[in-house]
Design a protein that fits this description.
heterodimer; A: about 500 residues; Rossmann fold; 2 domains; six-stranded mixed sheet; 17 helices; 23 strands; about 25% strand; B: about 300 residues; ABC transporter involved in vitamin B12 uptake, BtuC; globular
């Protein structure tokens, strides 16, 4: 049977922001629809309205001409709308089966049979009796999908589903989604990745700043046209010039090991690499394969053997981050609000935080506020941070602005090496572009970068050399020209 | 020295009796914490239960009204906590501490008129069977209904959490209230229910103290048992069976150190009184070392407020 889903004049206003401004859209089963937009464009709000998590201020939703009253996630489920959230809605400490039975009215045995038949049909293989926290991100997503399929939904909404997947897992997912679509499930696919839209979808709706800007068929679009619609202006394409081959070695890691006491962390095994001046070494991998441990070991949050890290001809393995900064290393951690900045502190206070010794921010233990403020203003204008109020608490900065501030702060000492961990994670295209340009500029000044990232495109764009981390081990280091994203994907999956 | 085997039985029975309030309050708090709520008001709810039970018994003369009234009193005072933390989204720790202080104060105020009044005898079950089996007789028979309930409770609690749908939902809410809410589970309702249940069990624990264990009202008579109950929950890593073990060790050492003091063992009294606390914690830490299991049974959202935004 044909399914028709209609969104009619939906508006949702938050204080200071119109998340959805009079949005109307229509979907029909048999097609895969993309909902495309940058972060903050309002696509997440819209799908949360469809799944009953958020109640709109105005507007109606019709499924096959019936007006739906979606006041809670339960209502959406009852009306056969299934949703797989970007951040998984799973209970990590419960078993897979417990996760699935919790919102089902079926008996244990019949549910088990149903799950088994779903897994068989779509070639999923997941152990139902282990806790969810032991699953990979791809498997967790399958659990979420199974959870929706149990209810034989008419509509399946996928919110940024590939952000945690490998290339292989992504293509598996696409195959499944196409199969669902052929079986008559209406698929709405939310993303900001243009390549995926071109690959998977039949129609695309683009949102910008809460408004629907266009609806069109994929065959009439290309990546550039979609990007421009999404951002609302013409984007410059960034290309890195090939680095001058320098043989001046800056940092060398030798036989570095880290064994964690926490069973849910990854152990690092026998890490060896070196980075020359002016070079960018990219480290690819699926998240959770030891990236965060590697970052911590490199930054000195985890201290290792003195001789395992040689930087500028000094052994620094046993130094803490503050001491390493004095040797002109700088760090940009993954979690901007938890690790890089203190959310409740003002912008200028955060600027002062990582420069205790080498700067003139402090005189005899007293804070030199004017100096700090002066410098903060300089960062804000140099790095295009979109605010003029340095007294603003940093938690109120958008991700992109905060990342620019952090990178700006880190560059104050003009470090020889910047270590970044997912610097553009969750940022919109404009901010990503800016960060990428900044990183390229750093390399051009003959400074080095270690870029740990889960975004393969980013790595291929910025790195001179690439290695892949899998289960705490690094692959051999390759020249970027010799690498394709397919090859990286295979290495990320653990094959050789 | 000849030890009368029935005397050993009596000592074990008295150890078990002293463990009863700890088991009751801990198992109640365990359910509360499993739903992600940290209620530090156990001591306060317990003492309210103690005075309510004793007062109702004295005024109405009915033991049944007194016992259920004490549980209801626990429910009522925990409703304050639930309203503050779940509806007004206040901080769990501060609110729980306030609840304890409030409970101790108000119980002392109500209790003024009940000091010195003798309690009533609470009926015991299977009194006649006490002498039929040596050693086991005094252990198994001749106790109040609350006693038997307390020793069944850890097993019921364990079964409830592991095997029932509602138990699963409670664990899910404690693991991730956001996910639970997105799955259509009413997080606030579940947490309210778990808090109120914890209050009822603390109230019952208090009533056991003032009506059965030492049938009288003394100001501040819970004497820190609420805090021990809280500690038991954490150190047992939210496992009801380990709570039983911990409560028995604590009760046992408390009784044994009394006897040691009485016999005049030459160990400083302060050390003897501290012993149950130290040993209980050491034992529970040792039996709960498996960090994997801890991770699996710790409610990840414990003590964090959940606010559903619309």
């Amino acid at each position: 049977m044909n399914t028709n889903l209609k969104i009619s004049n939906v508006t949702k206003i938050y204080p200071g922001c119109v998340a959805n401004d009079n949005v109307s859209l229509e979907f029909n089963s048999g097609k895969i629809y993309a909902l495309l937009g940058e972060n903050g464009a309002g696509k997440s709000t819209l799908v949360k309205i469809l799944s009953g998590v958020i109640i709109p201020d105005e507007g109606k939703i019709y499924l096959n001409e019936n007006n739906l009253n979606l006041n809670s996630p339960l209502d959406a489920k009852k009306n056969d709308i299934g949703m797989v959230f970007q951040h998984f809605n799973l209970f990590e400490t419960l078993s897979v089966f417990d996760n699935l039975i919790i919102d089902s009215d079926e008996q244990r045995e019949s549910l088990r049979e149903k799950i088994d038949s779903i897994m068989k049909k779509y070639n999923f293989s997941i152990d139902l009796d282990i806790p969810v926290l032991n699953l990979s991100a791809g498997q967790k997503q399958k659990v979420e999908i199974i959870r929706c399929l149990i209810r034989s939904p008419k509509v399946l909404i996928m919110d940024e589903p590939t952000s945690v997947l490998t290339e292989q897992e992504t293509s598996e997912l696409f195959l499944s989604l196409k199969k669902f679509s052929e079986e008559g499930i209406l698929i709405i696919y939310i993303t900001h990745k243009l390549k995926e839209v071109m690959q998977l979808c039949d129609e695309v709706a683009v949102m910008r700043r809460g408004k629907l800007v266009s609806v069109s068929e994929i065959k009439n679009e290309n990546i550039e046209s979609l990007a421009n619609k999404m951002v609302g202006q013409n984007l410059r394409t960034i290309k890195k010039k090939k680095a001058k081959t320098s043989s001046d070695q800056l940092i060398k890691i030798t036989n570095l090991n880290f064994t964690s006491e926490d069973p849910f962390e990854t152990n690092l095994m026998d890490i060896n690499f070196s980075v020359n001046r002016g070079e960018c070494l990219g480290i690819a991998g699926i998240s959770g394969n030891g990236q965060s441990e590697l970052f911590q070991v490199l930054s000195g949050e985890i201290i290792s053997e003195k001789k395992s890290i040689e930087f500028n001809n000094n052994y620094i393995g046993d130094l803490n981050p503050q001491e390493r900064r004095e040797y002109l290393m700088a760090f940009s951690p993954e979690d901007r609000l938890e690790q890089a900045a203190i959310p409740q502190m003002k912008i200028f206070e955060n600027v002062a935080l990582n420069n205790f010794k080498s700067s003139n921010f402090f005189n005899n233990g007293l804070i030199n506020e004017n100096k700090i403020k002066e410098h903060s203003k300089k960062i804000i204008s140099d790095f295009n941070v979109n605010t003029d109020n340095i007294e603003l608490k940093s938690q109120f900065l958008s991700g992109g602005n905060l990342q620019k501030l952090i990178i700006g702060r880190e560059l104050i000492t003009s470090p020889d090496l910047l270590i970044c961990f997912n610097p553009t994670w969750g940022l919109d295209v404009g901010a990503i572009n800016y960060i990428h340009e900044t990183l390229i500029k750093i390399n051009e000044q003959n400074k080095s970068i270690i870029l740990i990232s889960t975004d393969t495109d980013e790595l291929l764009k910025l790195s001179d050399k690439i290695s892949v981390i899998h289960k705490g081990k690094l692959s051999k280091i390759m020249n970027t020209e010799e690498v394709t994203s397919e090859k990286l994907g295979i290495l990320m999956g653990g094959a050789n | 020295m000849i030890i009368d085997i029935n005397f050993v039985g009596l000592i074990i029975a008295s150890i078990m009796a002293s463990a009863v309030p700890l088991i009751l309050a801990s198992c109640g708090e365990l359910i509360t914490e499993r739903s992600g709520v940290l209620n530090l008001g156990v001591e306060g709810m317990m003492i309210i239960g103690a005075i309510s039970g004793f007062a109702l018994m004295t005024v109405t003369g009915s033991l049944i009204i007194a016992v259920f009234g004490a549980m209801l009193a626990g429910v009522l005072i925990s409703t304050i906590f639930a309203f503050l933390t779940q509806t007004l989204i206040t901080n769990h720790v501060a609110t729980g501490l306030a609840l304890t202080i409030f409970g101790i104060g108000i119980s002392a105020m109500i209790g003024k008129n009940f000091v010195g009044i003798p309690g009533k005898e609470f009926p015991v079950l299977f009194e006649g069977l006490k002498d039929t089996i040596p050693l086991l007789g005094p252990i198994l028979f001749g106790h109040s209904i609350v006693f038997y309930f307390a020793f069944a409770l850890p097993f019921i609690t364990s079964y409830f959490l592991k095997k029932t749908k509602i138990g699963l939902i409670v664990r899910a809410v404690g693991d991730s209230p956001e996910s639970a809410s997105n799955q259509g589970i009413n997080v606030r309702l579940i947490r309210y229910a778990c808090i109120l249940y914890g209050g009822a069990m603390s109230g019952l624990a208090g009533a056991y103290l003032s009506m059965i264990y030492t049938p009288q009202w003394i100001e501040n008579m819970t004497g820190g048992r609420g805090w021990i109950a809280l500690a038991l929950v954490v150190f047992s890593t939210w496992n009801p069976i380990k709570i039983l073990i911990g409560a028995m060790i604590f009760g046992g050492l408390t009784i044994i150190q009394f006897h040691m003091q009485a016999i005049g063992v030459r160990i400083p009294v302060q050390f003897l009184t501290a012993l149950p606390y130290i040993v209980t914690i050491i034992v529970l830490v040792v039996i709960s070392r498996d960090s994997r299991k801890i991770r699996l049974s710790t409610p990840s959202s414990l003590g964090k407020s959940f606010h559903k935004d619309n």
